[in-house]
């Protein structure tokens, strides 16, 4: 086919284009493009709170991942009761003999009262367990929420009606009460009453139960987004060219949904960290020999009047982590959605 | 009328949107009769203009032809093949031949895809591999629509409205279609940009021999672009004719009223003030359209007959072949002075 001769409109359009170019050219040269993601990244880099929060969050993830390595270099582990081999570490009332909870060059964060475990490695492994469970729960929640929400929004009609009613029911559940009441039932399903519940089962049940109550909010959010997006003309344009529903969902809709998904996920993860710790504190989550943020705080609560240092480390680290992650979530939202002003 | 073997043949096309009501069990309590029995043909390479005021079913007709909506009744044939209720798989071979240009250039391009991806998308979906690769084809298409081919890696937000609409045109052209349904392609654009885009479409039509169904509410643009024009009112075609016939010799009162509302560009003090037909009242609700002729509630000629008997769309005496009018009391066949209607976007701009 022959391209038509340049229309008489072309010269007019050129002025239009040159204006466009002069706006673009200062920071992007040639055909380099500014994708929405790159623009968001640039906005994010300018946000100092966000960058600092991101560094803190990354630091926590790094020490969680590298916990075994750090423990090896440090030469301790979270399970050994050092006091049983060296009784001089604890005083007559089983509290750390040294000042500040026994902090020394050997035990950086001191030692635990009564059992005499090393606080530093216990905290490292505790962060590792808690973050692992929270991260897995977040991923599972997002996947379930995306699948259910996008399906309901895209199919609409009866499917949407039923899914929405299920979401209503799940959201109206008092989930904390339900966790406390229901977790023993879950364990009972798999383990005989007298046996010890294996840690992996506790972890998996926690992840599943947390996700089972978490998916509804993200599903509802995405359903609403998809309801709006599927009426947009670019979806119709894809349909006119014969796109399959799969293609429309994955190529047309999902790229437009990453913003709310990322924002939700960054706000969800710290909530799960606290929820998991709360459950451990209440005794229905991870239990004692396994290091965990919540377990540690639970132990600390038993002797904080005598040995405040032991409570300080897990409490403070968790506050810092959750605060940083929430601030990060806010910054990510601001970067991705410049129109939303707090 | 069109050739014996039209590209697109629409007959009795109907679309009723059900209205659900009632509690607790919802049931259909009525229907919005958006499109009610349309008959028209589009010949190969021909441009049919579809005009009418807001809410008369123009856009619905466009979406029915492209099968974005399921018709309630009637048939749509493309090259003799009935596609009225064809499924997505059955439509696959035809999809590349019927394309659409959308009204809002800000909503019709996916903000998360580059221009190259947007234009290559139709080729990807239909598994078309042009010689020289898809990227080369995308560059060629960008050149055809008057954009810089180097911009294929950019995102829609980096373009202006007129440029975006050009991208939409390039996407529609990507599959070498035979028919393009243009749903008010310029009404969202600035007047200065409208002319450019209309000229681009006209060149595309002439050079590539693509048939158009051009939906618009701007009579001047339709006059500039379309060889044949159909006037719609409340879901029905009231008059369809060749361009010059329709603009020079409108027979339906509604067409005449529409034409009299076209603003005049020339100020001529000597000319007698032309008669401006003012329609009173509102367009009736398509949920409960008037009996008989749908225009009768606002027509100054309406009688008993109009209320009882729906006028058929036929060739009335004094008309050229192919000039069909649905009216019991057509206007007399006088010719409107040419100078009054001698405006198209070029002379206006």
TrEMBL record, chain B:
Gene Ontology BP annotations: peptide transport; transmembrane transport
Highest taxon of the lineage: Bacteria
Pfam families (UniProt xref): ABC_tran, oligo_HPY
Domain ABC transporter positions: 8-259
Keyword set, alphabetical order: ATP-binding, Nucleotide-binding, Transport
CDD domains cross-referenced by the UniProt entry: ABC_NikE_OppD_transporters (cd03257)
One GO MF term: ATP hydrolysis activity
Family note: Belongs to the ABC transporter superfamily.
Name of this chain's protein: Dipeptide/oligopeptide/nickel ABC transporter ATP-binding protein
